[in-house]
Amino acid sequence: MPISDLLRPVSTAAPDFFSSDYLSVTTSPFVRDAFLRNLASSPRILGSGGSRLGTGNTDAYTHIEERLRNLFGGPGIHACDALLFNSGYDANRVFWSTVPQKGDAIVFDNYVHISMKDGMFQSRAGSTGALYPFEHNAIVAFKERVGEALKEHPNISEGKGTLFVAVETLYSMDGDFARLREIFKAADELIPAGCAHMMVDEAHTTGLFGPDGRGLLFELGLETRVDTVLHTFSKAWGMSGGVIMTSPLIRKYMIMRGKPVMFSTALPYSHICGLNTVLDYVTSTAGSEQRERVRELCLYFSDCLAKGLRSVSPKLLRLDDVEISSYHRQTVVSPIFPILTPAYTSLANFLGAYGYAVTAIGFPAVPRGQERIRVTIHAGNTEAELDEFIACLMRWASGMQNGKRLERSRL
């Protein structure tokens, strides 16, 4: 396949059911107009002049970090200081590559983002093999791995090392939530007090849950249980970049040891202006309405698709079975729907012919037998758009079950 085919432009001819723009910020006329007004009044727009440790650390950066600290911090929260990064990938990699030391150990869900794993393997803890992945969302496996880590590193229980625990709130490939309460409870039971460091990645829940879009930890009242949190701006915020919320000491350490902080040019002033604009929007009444709209549409899509799939063989097309903890059911609904099919390429091509920007996801991105397309719901979608998309899925499934050639012109 030519390299150009790998980076071909995505279609925009049909409604968006595939991006991470959950609150439809990127297509909001209100946000666009507010951004342009703020940009017009901004004293500086282009560039930043250097890295944060060079000439790039002006009042604009300290101001946005203060706003993020006020939004994501609060009384009793250990993760109360903010450090802005050019991307969530950089943020995760810097934290995990610099903070864990020799003598520490890391227990992590096997499905955490590759940016976390890259950092872990580069860390001093990783260089000694002190990495303990556990089966995704399996509490028994988590307990076993914690036990192994403590047994092999007795210095941690003696207060001479730290056991780091890493999970995400919402796993983007499967659309399922971490079993946070069970994980925190098990950690409390097994890890001596003061010897654990809980790190949670809120990339896919920042802006989407909690008061003012503070995230799933705030939604569940668990914000005081963590030591470090990652929030990113490339999903519900419709921007790019990320922020690590952690202690002042760790923030300082990451600044001095994190190469992306030391050597990357800081985000341009226009981007900081955009972050301020979206922060205003996400924390406004309009932001709350958009969050509720996403929840309503997710429930609608789930119900309608489940009804449609009753006439389709699960061997051809099915929704992935996602176990949802009871404390999630009322207020928290995943906007991510993995639709599994062995004919994932055929389905993607069929939907692409209708203008949908769908991606066929196969091995090694997912295990063999778990091939899929992945649908995400956005506040800007409508019930009519969802109905038409489901109808399109059903036309493809009907054609496949009846042995027809799946061409748009014939269906």
UniProtKB/TrEMBL annotation:
Pfam family, one: Aminotran_1_2
Alphabetical list of InterPro entries matching this protein: Aminotrans_II_pyridoxalP_BS, Aminotransferase_I/II_large, AON_synthase_class-II, PyrdxlP-dep_Trfase, PyrdxlP-dep_Trfase_major, PyrdxlP-dep_Trfase_small
PROSITE patterns: AA_TRANSFER_CLASS_2
UniProt keyword terms in alphabetical order: Pyridoxal phosphate, Transferase
GO molecular function: pyridoxal phosphate binding; transferase activity
Superkingdom assignment: Eukaryota
GO biological process terms on file: biotin biosynthetic process
Cofactor: pyridoxal 5'-phosphate
Occurrences of domain Aminotransferase class I/classII large (ranges): 27-391
Family: Belongs to the class-II pyridoxal-phosphate-dependent aminotransferase family. BioF subfamily.
Protein name in UniProt: PLP-dependent transferase
